[in-house]
UniProtKB/TrEMBL annotation:
Gene3D superfamilies from the UniProt entry: Jelly Rolls (2.60.120.10)
Protein name from the UniProt record: (S)-ureidoglycine aminohydrolase cupin domain-containing protein
Protein origin, superkingdom: Eukaryota
Domain (S)-ureidoglycine aminohydrolase cupin intervals: 14-88
Entries under CDD domains matching the protein: cupin_TM1112-like
Amino acid sequence: MDIVIEHNPSSTKLSELGVMSWPKWSCQPGRYALVFEERETCYLVKGKVKVYPKGSSEFVEFGAGDLVTIPKGLSCTWEVSLFVDKHYKFDPPT
């Protein structure tokens, strides 16, 4: 289960994906246990996050300006060090 991060995607790509029309989600710094029931694609407008997959001490880090794809079925802990503001969309259930 790999989290895919694209750093600083072009404004053309973001426009083609319709990112700015996606719903928004935000959270304060802290630790959050999350389970992704569907694949999520998100674009961080603000913030910085370390994601620790369940049962692992290794992490993936991303932040403002990153386009991130999180795989379906991932159980993880988000360690948010800077306030997060993101646009997101879930793939439709299959």
